[in-house]
Amino acid sequence: MRVIITAGGTGGHIYPALAIAEKIKEKEPNSEFLYIGTHNRMEKDIVPQRGIPFKSIEMYGFNKKQLLKNFKTLKCLFKSFKECQKIIKEFNPDVVIGIGGYVTVPVIISAKKAGYKTFIHEQNSIPGKSNKFLAKYADLIGVSFASSKKFLPKEKTILTGNPCSEGALMVKPISKTELGFPASKKLILIAMGSLGSNTINNVLMESLEKFKDKDYSILYIAGKNVYDTIKNVPVPKNVKILPFYEGLAKVMKVSDLMVTRAGASTLSELISLNLPSILIPSPYVANNHQYINAMDLVKGKAALIIEEKDLNGDTLIKEIDTIINDDKKIKELKTNLDKFKVHDSATIIYNELKRLVK
User: Fold this and answer.
1) What would the DSSP string read from start to end of 78-107?
2) Which helix (H) or strand (E) holds 51?
3) Residue whose C-alpha is closest to residue 239's, from 311, 174, 190
């Protein structure tokens, strides 16, 4: 299969795109790929490291506050249509896949107008602006949450789950002792994304001493942006702080509870690994989509939520203790997480792509 993939801006778009590419390559080793991304975002570094040919186009999102910048955005958009038409014609793909971000707009539209098959995927409960706009140009639309279907054309929207979930299941777990904790103690994993959160960090720094008498271990992945400010802070013996952990799913597999944001990829991994969680949605994302993502699980009694405005050390510790010391509660959360599972998500997407191409 010859495949053009486009996704950009954040790991929440890029890693599901790569998961789909990996599944296609697993099923059809001779497949050829081309990734089209923005010239100045994460994908320009991540994608080439995976050995996937990469083409960049200059694209920007529309700016609500500095309207004059939108003239440059429009100029780049019109220019990118010409570039995409040329790139797509030269590569001549069987299918063009868009996994979110404004860079997908010129790619998917150009592909559709040139007569190529198109597939887009939405990771969040409420579709982003790009995917809402592109829905009419897509031959098929995959969604991670059943609740997303009401926002998109029903006749071509299917529940696929998030392709990152399948990858999480394949990861080999690390042991608690390798992390420096007793195997017999329960482990709480706190992680707020690769860059971290200053708000969460401040709450934890004020509360660290309160963890010293707890009968569980705490692994706090602080994030690269905040770690330098706290790396010399003394911590209780049952607490460990790291700046980053490559392949977090291997730690999630041995954790008993996770405190985290509510990004779509994170939720897909929590669901696939049956890991109870306390979700602290980021209030700084477009359309408050992390809160809406989280509420899908909360309403299904599959997770707990603390809004950032309500967060303090006492609240967090109380919620952790409420769950971790209640085996009945943990069992209930895991049972309800099962109801959200879409098994073999990347495989489902691969099979749908094959059907679409044929």
Assistant:
1) HHHHHHHHHHHHHH--SEEEE-SSTTHHHH
2) none
3) 190
Element at 299 (helix H, strand E): helix 289-299
Exposure class string for 5-28: b at 16+ Cβ within 10 A, else e: bbbbbbbbbbbbbbbbbbbbbeee
Please state at what angle helix 104-113 crosses helix 69-91, rounded to 10 degrees: 50
pLDDT, residue 307, reads 96
Tell if the pTM clears 0.70, that is, is over it: yes
Short-list 106, 88, 85, CA closest to 38: 106
169-338: which CATH number, 3.40.50.2000, 3.40.50.20, 1.10.357.10, 3.20.20.140? Answer: 3.40.50.2000
> In whole angstroms, how large is the CA radius of gyration of the chain?
21
Would you say 80 and 70 are in contact if contact means Cβ atoms under 8 Å apart? no
Mention every residue, 6+ apart, whose C-beta is less than 8 A from residue 159. Answer: 142, 143, 145, 146, 149, 342
Cα separations (Å) of 283 from 276, 307, 327?
22, 8, 31
Which amino acid is residue 213, in one-letter code? D
What does the pLDDT read at residue 322?
93
The angle subtended at Cα 12 by Cα 73 and Cα 1, nearest 5°, is 90
CATH topology assigned to domain 2-161+342-357: Rossmann fold (3.40.50)
Mean pLDDT of each 10-residue bin along the chain, 358 residues long: 93 92 97 95 91 92 69 84 97 97 95 98 93 97 94 96 90 95 97 82 90 95 87 92 92 97 93 97 88 95 96 94 96 96 94 96
